[in-house]
Design brief:
about 375 residues, alpha+beta, Creatine Amidinohydrolase, Chain A, domain 1, 3-stranded antiparallel sheet, about 30% helix, binds glycine, binds manganese (II) ion
Amino acid sequence: MPRKDRLGRIFQNAGGELDVVAIFNGDHADPNFFYISGYRSGIFERNALFLFPDGHVEVLTNTLEEDAARQRKDYTVHVEKGSGPAERRGLVSSILKGSARVGINFQGVSHKDYLTLKTMLDSKKLVDVSDALARSRLVKDPDELELISKAAQIISGVVEGVPGLLKEGMTERALKAQIDYQMVERGADSPSFESIVAFGESSALPHYSAGERRLRRGDNVLVDVGARYRLYCSDITRTFFFGRAVPSQKQAYSKVLEAQTKAIEAIREGVSGKAVHQAAARVIDGSEFKGRFTHSLGHSLGLEVHDGPGLSLRNSAKLKRDMVVTVEPGIYLPGEGGVRIEDDVAVTKGSCRLLTTAPKGLVEI
Ligand code: GLY
Ligand code: MN
């Protein structure tokens, strides 16, 4: 059986009478496939998972993933031998024989796959359960909190060592390669997203990718990186100064840190994501950097690095205990550079718990 509380949450959030929730993977597995099944290894592309209200799970797999799928002895496993679409249609229709209303994660299937599904399931009512799944995943179970904490510890250790890796003339890509290597060496499965390493003016672009820019004296060094540990993500940003920071760099750094501190102080169960964003934005917009904080304060974190809504003007929903969000204010000065500081926190009743632990004092190398 999958975890009873997860299962209950999914059917409860979906509302209405559903006979089954079916997750159809595309070329990349849907994170909900892992959330529901509890599988931790295997790729499972083009596989499907069927979750029934009585708690039983059936998996449609192929010969490539059969051994991985059979690791769960309590799941009924159907194996496609690869003879073509008719074989798949036959297996799916036998699994869904008694089901009239089928919940589908519309957000996780391509339009092309949806059209195939609609034809294959033409006698069924397909119900979109994407919001229900996303809402179910926002509040983390104890084992999820442990895995995210571990991912956060790994990346904190790597980032703490970044000042010691900096050498004048090195490229952003060279630093990125060292960071990616170190996180895996410390136990990560992989980076949780394409690592952002930005020197100087590159750091003014919040979603920059590392390039051939070489490190020069006077540069901001912004690293925004995350580790994936047993499928769960962390996400941290630190900004260092290569050489003595000039007054404008110091001012930007201290405003971002102040904004982040105010936001972290505001986080607790029952406060809206919007109110926390505003607590940080007020600090920056009340300074000489007004208008230079150009994105939302944070996102939910879990099986995906952007795991749902978090701290933004668009999110009036109240935070709940055991949600995990990032807190990442920034100041961006086009053509000059940017400063961002990001940590991962777990919401508690009266405050929050920091999961990332790398120091945040201003560092000049
Ligand atoms: N760490 C990248 C992002 O949050 O978008
Ligand atoms: Mn982030």
